Amino acid sequence: MKLWGGRFQKETDKAVDAFNSSISFDARLYRHDILGSIAHVKMLGKCGIISMEEAGTIAAALNGILKDIEEGLVELDVEAEDIHMNIEKILISRIGESGKKLHTGRSRNDQVALDMRMYLKDEIVYIKKLLGELMEALLALAEKHLDTLLPGYTHLQRAQPVTLAHHLMAYFQMFRRDMERLDGCYKRTNVMPLGSGALAATTYPLDREMVARELGFESISENSLDAVSDRDFVIELAFCISMVMMHLSRFCEELVLWSSHEFSFVEMDDSFSTGSSIMPQKKNPDVAELVRGKSGRAYGNLFTLLTVMKALPLAYNKDMQEDKEAVFDSIDTVKACLSVFTGMLKTLKIKGDNMYKAAREGFLNATDAADYLVKKGIPFRTAHHIIGKMVNYCIEKGKSIDDLALDELKSFSQVMEADIYEAVSLNKCVSERKLPGGPAREAVLASIKNGRDFLDGSGFQD
Fold first, then answer.
1. What is the pLDDT of residue 458?
2. Which of 64, 245, 369, 390 could cross-link with 295 by S-S, CB 3.0 to 4.6 Å?
3. Which range among 7-21, 126-140, 200-214, 356-370 shows the weakest confidence by mean pLDDT?
């Protein structure tokens, strides 16, 4: 007989049992469910709703169940539907009638909301740790390549020279915002819903603040309907994870391109590459490609959750059981991707000579040539036109701007002097861009320092 079966005269169809059951995926909530129940029963005893002796007996039995589950000594039952009913069923089988008092003043609706919030809080902390480790790896790699020049691109066309450090720090900023989003998500998840009941709270004099303190929550929910019927905190985490995966995917796309023969800017370590079953020469960037591909899973999970919730009336509906598999998969995916991506990045071989050679081609100093003319008193739009004609001339002659003789340069503008050669050198093009946020060495060093200060204050290692 089901724990809720008093009103029913027929057994549940076996197919319905299987269809209704969530134990195959919500079993991972066992620890949080038990800890939440222990806090709840302690509060029931303190408030005199059940005796302190009974509360102690139940709490001790729950601790025993937790230990047995972790040691693999408990077999969960699909007919008990979910992890919550499984644990309660085991509790009753171990201590009898006292175990039936655990659920006093509580519904599965606020119980599962509690479990999910506890579980997601722990996962956010762990995702932040992995993200922080990636960001530390980025800082370390940027420090090694403050003077490594490469082309910066727009439209995947060579545009202006930058340093590899500056390029890497762009991704650091993206991941920094991801970290900040996770912090905000954690804050909104850190609200204790227990005491909301099925939808209308309870007549028992519960001490909700005590439970919140026991479980490390910052506050309690203010509306019982809202507490049990929304999953915006789940959706928000799925969104945050989707953003992390999008940024990882963009980074992976560049690494896939850069590791190709056509770019040859980087080489993946053998330990993070695979080969071909038919072509002996191949070294494939499969790790980067898989991370890039797995971003689609995260997006799909986010849309699953949005779709599940989009038309649900208040309060709880069984549809909401579908929140778990989607967010669990996103969590598992982002953790795996962050871990393997960081390892790949730490072992990446940088081909600085090839990067510099590419930066020497494609007229990346054309903007600096125009700026040179502006500093000589020529309006920028006129200077832009002059340098555009010069670039066309260089293309026809197979030369670069700094290959032109001074008399060739003067044929485009008489204001050009010998000092233009220094002005359009790649190192000068980069070193002069020393505004905050620019690619010059001092600007990037300041950015790296700010990055380290951010990580030191982020608490990701706590």
1. 87
2. 245
3. 7-21
Catalytic annotation, residues? 155, 276
Q: How many residues can be counted in the chain?
A: 462
Residues 335 and 412 both lie in one domain: no
Domain boundary (104, 131, 148) is at: 104
Angle, vertex CA 420, rays to CA 415 and CA 426, nearest 5: 150
Q: How far apart are CA 245 and CA 294, in angstroms?
A: 8
Q: What is the mean pLDDT of the chain?
A: 95
Structure tokens at 457: 């204050």
- Give the tens place of pLDDT for each residue, 390-430: 999 999 999 999 999 999 999 999 999 999 999 999 999 99
Residue 122: closest CA among 205, 165, 175, 186: 186
Does this model's pTM top 0.85? My answer is yes
What are the residues whose beta carbons fall under 8 Å from the beta carbon of 26, sequence distance 6 or more?
82, 83, 324
Asked if 372 and 422 sit in the same domain, the reply is yes
For the chain, how many structural domains are there in total?
3
Beta-bridged to residue 390, according to DSSP, are: none
Range of the domain at 387: 361-449
